Amino acid sequence: MAQINPSILSADFARLAEEARRVEGTDGAAGADWLHVDVMDNHFVPNLTLGTPVVESLRKATDIPLDCHLMIEEPDRWAPAYVEAGAGSVTFHAEAAAAPVRLAREIRAKGARASMALKPATPIEPYEDLLPELDMLLVMTVEPGFGGQAFLDIMLPKIRRTRQLIDKHGLQLWLQVDGGVSASTIERCAEAGADVFVAGSAVYGADDPAAAVRALRQQAEEAAGSGREG
Ligand code: DX5
Ligand code: ZN
């Protein structure tokens, strides 16, 4: 089952509650599975966004669970506060974490899903033994820092290798892709084995963001189905 997580990085930051509601489901139609919240500290990436006060407010403004992607230094120090602020899933970067196993366990113990992200140049192989500690693995398909960048096709082999490792160990963890995911790239990601799709500009750049979410989900599910048959 494909999940679609709109990234509010491409939304209007002065109207976040309203922007969240634009991707909620209605009686007849499913909406976003999670709301993807990009936290940037101007150190790990050259951009600055928001912190725990905004997450706390968003939590009260929408029923969609929050998927917080921390593009920050010292996640060991800061990530637990995002669980307390109301995140249902917290993603830290492998490149920034001092003790990823301890941090993942702390996030889980506080009651959220624990997730780890890999920048494009970071391989999955050194982390094979850590996978059981995680609920989700995020393969970045752009260099983190900005929305609206072009999808990096060269990441498809890493998505495939990660899917193989997950299946080899019989794990349930989700495989997320983030960056440049759109109607023209989501099928390649799904065929490679991703099952959680972050989309910023492809959702919030659309006239009807909720319809864009549904169209992306359908494309991903059809591509995953044909991948399995093939
Ligand atoms: C990039 C962020 C992404 C970003 C994706 O560093 O992590 O979540 O919002 O935006 P699009 O979908 O426009 O590439
Ligand atoms: Zn992100």
Tag the structure with descriptive keywords.
230 residues, 8-stranded parallel β-sheet, alpha/beta, single chain, TIM Barrel, binds D-xylitol-5-phosphate, binds zinc ion, 8 helices
Which structural class best describes the helix and strand composition? alpha/beta
- CATH class group: Alpha Beta
Straight-line N-to-C gap: 18 Å
Helix-strand pattern, N to C?
EHEHEHEHEEHEHEHH
Mean pLDDT comes to 97
Strand coverage percent: 15-25%
Heterogens: D-xylitol-5-phosphate, zinc ion
Brief summary:
The protein is built from eight helices and eight strands. It is α/β, with parallel strands linked by helices. Bound molecules: D-xylitol-5-phosphate and zinc ion (ZN).
What secondary-structure arrangement, pairings included, does this model have?
Elements: E1 3-6, H1 16-21, E2 35-40, H2 52-61, E3 66-71, H3 75-84, E4 89-93, H4 100-109, E5 113-118, E6 136-140, H5 156-168, E7 174-178, H6 186-192, E8 196-199, H7 201-204, H8 209-229
Helix pairs in contact: 3-4, 6-8
Family: Belongs to the ribulose-phosphate 3-epimerase family.
Protein name: Ribulose-phosphate 3-epimerase
Keywords: Carbohydrate metabolism, Isomerase, Metal-binding
